[in-house]
Structures are given as structure tokens and as C-alpha cells.
Write a structure and sequence with these properties.
The structure holds two protein chains of two kinds. By secondary structure, chain A is α+β, with helices and mostly antiparallel strands. Chain A is built from four helices and 17 strands. Chain B is α/β, with parallel strands linked by helices. The longest helix of chain B has 26 residues. Chain B is built from ten helices and eight strands. The chains are: A alpha+beta, B alpha/beta.
Chain lengths: 471, 305
């Protein structure tokens, strides 16, 4: 097109020249006019040839396949040496040579390339909303928590850096459900009120760089690092309901409290490259009213403490093994004379598919032993355990089973056991459905239940435990 | 006894003097570049092993041991690794945290495709907020990544900077030659129409002239319904697509089914270094993928031009 304009411009100039030539004497005029006519003919012929060439090139271009079916690459700000990302020019290969030359030149400079264009999200935290909807059909007809649907929880998960050396996490659940005690007594009237509440499940800052290598500190309210399962939120459990032993010793969902938590990784260089993590936590020792052991409510005069030590080790390129030990000390009920000591061991064995095709296996077990005064000087020596095994079937499907047995942490004469096979189907990382059958027996009404669960997430990718691919 | 201790101390000294630059990478591709540039002066560990989907890597706590001792942490810089933050917080190594020199964003200077410009939500699937993160599948972006990494390596280990720069220069030339070779090799099949399982090959389509007409996944990370699978088959038949590319980690059976229904051939291609045994360098990855694609096109009856 540009060439056409030049040609027209040239013709215009020629016309002006012709007009000027008319002002000179006739003899010289004739010869000059002849020359100008010749030049004009030449220009017209050049323009015609170029027009033909342009048409030919346009036709060739139309015959070429489009670059890709995908939208065109976003135009990032130009930077030195940005590789060309258009459809390759098979005729010249010059873009490859150009990129190579640009890169070789750029190696000599110390300036970094232009960072990838990010959408402005200045100072906004990572934000996720996680919804958990569950229902069940059960032979426990007299339990008001059964045979119903519940939007058990909507959880607001906010995470952000608050300082170069500190991050913050705030997790605010809105719960709506009926209390479902593990040792349900059908002869005692249960509270069948639907409990709707907003609470602070976790809110803490993590100081991850305050001068002591390998040590991080958490200040605020958090899930205690007692075993592995207690760290999980409801939507991250591999099963619909909580492991019985966790319910019996720690809480209906988990044991969370306010305080300070210190976590130290023993320098791997000192211990042959092993991963050993030691945690020490000092908490108010309040727990929640619903919690079985630490349930002091506003009782804060004597703090509780929790310790956890874990060793994680690769058994081969694909197998990973972890063993941990926990100890929790606090007070039971609103009394400084009722002690609560809980000991725990957790084991996790995981295999990840070396082919990347999702044939992953996961086994986890926890054992707890409690020495809890249910009144002053009357310790209850109770124990419990669970084992969960999960097989990933393909990208979207998981199957597994959980086996439970536990005594009541505050009544050593009561026990309950259960078998709970489950299957989980992820439509995506952000939408999950689960079915779980459970048979329960022991010193409770033998019951068969079928649980259904649907979890959904919108917002940022929620963090999940290392042994879980999704969730 | 004293003499023995002195001898032992002297023996220990050289190992301290030759402490290597420790580099941890999220992907095997970055690890290969680091090895090519660093040679015997670096210790490189990749969290990803190769065949798996980078998005679904399971980072074991033992990976944190490597990160704990790392001088550099090379990663996609985008949101391809949703497990990265857990790994970083577990690593307890401030040298490699975000906004520190040891945190190497390998996407620097690379034009990222398909970055959403308007409203985004999960109706778009597991959409990546910063655009398509599979930028490693192009030799020219590998050249850029080599430049990004060598600058970080030279800054972290000035004593060996000259070696790194020299190796990077050699590597950039080598990969440039690979880029030319695969494009030349593929020239007879220029414009080959393909369907891929996941939108992982858009950058590869810049390296060799293939035309990606669609994906089996209706949206990133979303398994298609039977109706959506049929739509892909119908579309392939209409457009004469003869090749289906399935990543090493994706649903081979479904890809095979789609290919069979559409009268096409399916090929499993690694989209990362070490995606399959033997393809353990970037150069081998591009050559393998190109050759396999040519073989599949031939097997599907596509005539060379």
C-alpha cells in the first residue's frame, strides 16, 4: 500500500513537472516533454508491476493457515531479546537467528528481562471461599444430626504477606449444623437446635525470618500440631466425617486455640540430609465448649502446651514415609485440679505414581492415648486409633476406607468403632463430590449411615496437605 | 592424635572450598538448563520428576530439605505450581523466598499467551490468571530462560560467573541450532492439524508449524462429558484432523478413543524434560516430540508437502 502511495506521489510530481515545462520555449519543451513521457511510462509500468506483486503476495498470505486456533499471544511489553512468538517463518528462519543473537547479546548485560505482566492486585490477599454441603441417610433415627442436609460450613480463607518477614492467615467459618456427639446416647434428649455461628477458626501471623535459621513462629489462633489430621480443615479430610479418635480426644472438628507456636527444622546438613521438624506450642488451654478434653471456655490462668516431633523420609524415589509423636498437656473442665495429658503417634505412607498418571496411594494412621481427669484425681486411661487408606483411580476419582476404634477420652468404659468406605469424585480442583458408607458399633447404637458431601471453592487455589493431590 | 586431627581438617578443607551452587527447580526443564550452564559447579534438584502434570506434583516434605539448602529456586513465575507456596514456607530459607534474588522467575522476558484480560472465574475451568504457563515448550523460550538463569547464577556465585556465561553462550547457540533443525525437519508437514488433550502445546506451535484446532478438555483441567467428546470428534472429522497429542500424564484411553472415532492417530508426547525415559535434555525433548509427530502424521496417512 505504501508503495502505491509513493507511486501516486511520483505521478503527481511528474504532472507538476509537465506543467512547469509548458513555460519554457517549444523546441526544448518538446524534447523535455518526450523525456518526461518516457519517465511517466516507466513509472506507470513500475506501479503496475508492484500492484501485481502486492496482489500475488496477498493471495499467498490468504492461502496460509492461521497461526493457531487459540487467541493470539498477549502483547507483553517489549524487552530486549523477547523471543518472537508468532507463527514460524519457514522461508527464512531469521527469527531463530535473531533470537539467538539477541540472547547472546543479552547474556553480557546484568539487567533482568522485563517481568511477566501481572494484573494489578496490589495489596489484595489471596482470597478463597470454600463451601461444604453434606447430607446423610442413617438408621440412627433418634439422632437429630442424622437424616438431614446441612450446609456445614462456608469458610472464608484469606492469606497475604504483611511484611517482608511475616505472612498472615485468617480463616473465618460460618457453620450451620446440629451437634453430633460421637458417643450419642439415644436415651438422653439431645440438643436438636440448628447452630449457626461465625467463628475465628484460625487467624495468625507467621514470622518466617527473624534471625534464627530454620525457625518460624506463629502468633494467634491456630490448629494445634497434634498428629496430622488435627491440622486439617473439614473440607480437606479424605472422608466426609472426622476420624473417631480425633473427635474423642481433640474436638468435633479439630483442636484450635490461641497462643504461640514455634517450629524448627533441624539443619539437614547436621543429620545426614534428613527432614526432622520439632514444634512447641504454648496455648491458653481453653479449647471450645464442644471439645472433649480442653474445654475450659474462658479458663486462662494456666496455659496448655503441645509438642510435636516428626521425621519424614523417602523410602525410594516414589515412596515417602513420615512418623510423628505428639504430647498435649492442659486442664480439663473449669478446674486447675483436673489434668489432661494426651499422647499421640502419627504415621503416613505415600506412594506417588512415577509415570505421573495418578496411580497414587496414601495410608495414614494415628494412635492416641489419654490420661484425662474427668474429676479431680480420677484419671481416665483411654486410647483410640484410626487408619485410612486411599487409592487414586485416575485424575478425578479416589476410593478408600477408614477404620476407627476409640474409647471415650473422658470415660474409659465407653468405646466405639466404625468401618467407612468412601469414594470421591473431583469435577475439578474446585468442585468435589463424595459418598461414604459407615457402619458403627460398640457402646453406642449400632448404625448404618450413608453420607454425601459436596465441596466447592471459588477464588485462589486453596492450600492442601502435601499428601493430597486435590482438596 | 593431634596430627591425625590436623590431617583430617586439611582433608576437609577442599570440600568446603568447592561448595557447589545449589539450585532447586520446580520443573525438570529448568533443571536441565541449570545443569547445562552450571556443569560440575552446581548441584541441581528438580521437585518435578518429568512425566507428571506440573500442576499436580506432590511435593514431599523431603523436597524441603533441598529447598532449605538452596541458593537459587527456579520456578515458572506464574501459577503453574499451586504447591509452590507450601514448599517455600516449609523450606525455611529466606534466600529463595519471593522478592529475594534467589527466587528466579523463569518467565521473565517471555511473551505469555492467552492471559485473560477481562473477568475471570472458574466457569473458564482451571484457568491460569497470568496466562498459559506451558511456555517451556519452545526452544526460543529456552534460550531466554537460559539467559535469565545464568544472570541469577552469576550473581549468586561470582567466582564461577565466567564459566556460567561461557556455558550459557554455548547452550543458547546449541538450542538455536535445535530450533532450526526441528523446523526444517517438520517443513514437509507444515500446517499439520492436531488436537491436543490439554492446552499445553500452544508454544510448541510457534516452534514448528502445527495448527492446533482444539483440545479434548473443554476447559483447562476439566474432564469432558461424553457430549463434549463427541463434539471434538465431529470437529476433527469436519476439519480433517489426523493427529491427537496426549501428554504423558493425561487420559491416554480417552485420547485413543477420540483418535479412533475421528479416524486419526494418537501420540503420547512428553511436555517436559524426562517426561519419558531417555528424553533427559531439552534438546532431546524437542527432537523427540518433532520426530514422533512426523511419524504419527505419516502413520495417519498425512502426505508430506
Amino acid at each position: 500500500m505504501l508503495k502505491r502511495i509513493f507511486a501516486i506521489g511520483a505521478l503527481g510530481c511528474a504532472s507538476t513537472a509537465i506543467a512547469a515545462a509548458q513555460a519554457v520555449p517549444p523546441t526544448t519543451q518538446d524534447s523535455r516533454l518526450d523525456r518526461l513521457e518516457q519517465k511517466l511510462d516507466q513509472l506507470q509500468s513500475d506501479v503496475k508491476a508492484r500492484d501485481q506483486r502486492i496482489e500475488q503476495l496477498e493471495a499467498e498470505l490468504a492461502k496460509r493457515p492461521p497461526a493457531t486456533s487459540q487467541p493470539a499471544a498477549m502483547a507483553a511489553p517489549p524487552s530486549p531479546g523477547t523471543p518472537a512468538s508468532s507463527q514460524p517463518d519457514t522461508s527464512g528462519l531469521s527469527d531463530i537467528d535473531k533470537t539467538t543473537q539477541d540472547m547472546l547479546k543479552d547474556i553480557q548485560t546484568k539487567e533482568a528481562a522485563t517481568p511477566t505482566l501481572r494484573f494489578p492486585a496490589n495489596f489484595n490477599p489471596n482470597f478463597a471461599v470454600i463451601g461444604d454441603f453434606a447430607g446423610n441417610v442413617s438408621s440412627e433415627h433418634r439422632n437429630p444430626a442424622m437424616n438431614r442436609f446441612d450446609l456445614r460450613e462456608i469458610e472464608l480463607d484469606l492469606r497475604a504477606a504483611v511484611d517482608p518477614r511475616a505472612d498472615a492467615v485468617v480463616i473465618l467459618p460460618v457453620d450451620r449444623s446440629i451437634a453430633n456427639p460421637l458417643f450419642f446416647d439415644q436415651n438422653t434428649r439431645q440438643n436438636d437446635n440448628v447452630d449457626t455461628s461465625i467463628s475465628i477458626e484460625e487467624a495468625y501471623i507467621t514470622l518466617h525470618d527473624f534471625g534464627v535459621p530454620n525457625l518460624v513462629a506463629k502468633l494467634g489462633r491456630f490448629h494445634l500440631h497434634f498428629g496430622r489430621w488435627n491440622l486439617l480443615h473439614l473440607h480437606a479430610w479424605p472422608t466426609v466425617d472426622n476420624a473417631f479418635v480425633v473427635q474423642s480426644f481433640l474436638g468435633p472438628e479439630s483442636l484450635a486455640d490461641s497462643g504461640a507456636s514455634f517450629s524448627y527444622i533441624v539443619p539437614p546438613g547436621l543429620i545426614g540430609g534428613q527432614y526432622v521438624e520439632a514444634d512447641a506450642e504454648i496455648i491458653t488451654g481453653e479449647g471450645e465448649r464442644d471439645d472433649p478434653v480442653l474445654n475450659n471456655g474462658a479458663y486462662v490462668t494456666t496455659p496448655g502446651v503441645n509438642f510435636h516431633l516428626l521425621w519424614n523420609h523417602d523410602l525410594g524415589p516414589d515412596w515417602n514415609f513420615e512418623v510423628g509423636g505428639s504430647f498435649l498437656h492442659g486442664h480439663h473442665n473449669d478446674s486447675a485440679r483436673q489434668y489432661a495429658n494426651v499422647f499421640g503417634t502419627d504415621l503416613t505412607l505415600m506412594r506417588r505414581d512415577p509415570t505421573g498418571r495418578f496411580n497414587n496411594q496414601f495410608f495414614q494412621a494415628e494412635v492416641m492415648y489419654g490420661n484425662v481427669d474427668n474429676r479431680a484425681g480420677n484419671p481416665q486411661h483411654s486410647a483410640g486409633a484410626f487408619l485410612v487408606a486411599q487409592q487414586q483411580l485416575n485424575r478425578d476419582w479416589y476410593g478408600g476406607v477408614r477404620l476407627d476404634w476409640t474409647q471415650n477420652a473422658v470415660n474409659e468404659h465407653q468405646e466405639v468403632w466404625g468401618v467407612s468406605p468412601f469414594v470421591t469424585w473431583y469435577w475439578s480442583e474446585f468442585l468435589m463430590f463424595r459418598l461414604e458408607y459407615q457402619h458403627k458399633g460398640g457402646d453406642v447404637l449400632n448404625a448404618d449411615s450413608l453420607f454425601f458431601q459436596c465441596d466447592f471453592v471459588f477464588g485462589a487455589h486453596p492450600p492442601h496437605p502435601y499428601w493430597s493431590v486435590k482438596g | 592424635m593431634q596430627k591425625l586431627l590436623i590431617v583430617l581438617a586439611i582433608m576437609a578443607m577442599p570440600s568446603l572450598a568447592h561448595a557447589n551452587l545449589k539450585i532447586v527447580t520446580t520443573a525438570t526443564d529448568f533443571a536441565d538448563i541449570a545443569r547445562q550452564i552450571g556443569g560440575d559447579k552446581v548441584e541441581v534438584h528438580s521437585v518435578m520428576k518429568g512425566p507428571e502434570n506440573i500442576h499436580n506434583v506432590i511435593p514431599k516434605p523431603t523436597e524441603m530439605v533441598y529447598l532449605n539448602q538452596a541458593d537459587l529456586f527456579a520456578n515458572s513465575g506464574l501459577d503453574a505450581e499451586p504447591w509452590l507456596d507450601n514448599l517455600l514456607s516449609g523450606g525455611r530459607n529466606s534466600k529463595v523466598e519471593r522478592n529475594h534474588p534467589g527466587f528466579v522467575d523463569m518467565s521473565q522476558g517471555i511473551t505469555i499467551k492467552d492471559a485473560p484480560t477481562g473477568h475471570i472465574d472458574r466457569s473458564m475451568g482451571d484457568v491460569h490468571a497470568y496466562g498459559n504457563p506451558h511456555y517451556t515448550l519452545n526452544p526460543q523460550t529456552a534460550q531466554r530462560m537460559a539467559v535469565t538463569l545464568v544472570k541469577a547464577m552469576a550473581a549468586a556465585d561470582p567466582a564461577n560467573a565466567k564459566t556460567y556465561v561461557a556455558n550459557a553462550q554455548r547452550y543458547v547457540k546449541e538450542i538455536g541450532d535445535v530450533a532450526k533443525k526441528i523446523r526444517d525437519d517438520f517443513k514437509p508437514y507444515e500446517g499439520l492439524k492436531v488436537v491436543t488433550f490439554h492446552a499445553a502445546w500452544d508454544y510448541f506451535a510457534d516452534a514448528i508449524p502445527i495448527q492446533i484446532v482444539g483440545t479434548i478438555e473443554p476447559k483447562p483441567g476439566i474432564t469432558p462429558s461424553p457430549a463434549q467428546v463427541q463434539q471434538v470428534v465431529d470437529s476433527m472429522k469436519r476439519q480433517g484432523v489426523k493427529v491427537v497429542i496426549c501428554e504423558t500424564w493425561d487420559d491416554v484411553r480417552l485420547s485413543e478413543y477420540v483418535a479412533n472415532q475421528a479416524g486419526a492417530k494418537m501420540v503420547i508426547l512428553p511436555d517436559h524434560v524426562s517426561g519419558i525415559p531417555g528424553v533427559d535434555t531439552y534438546a532431546k525433548l524437542f527432537q523427540y516430540d518433532t520426530q514422533k509427530l512426523i511419524e504419527t502424521a505419516r502413520a495417519a496417512g498425512v502426505q508430506p508437502k
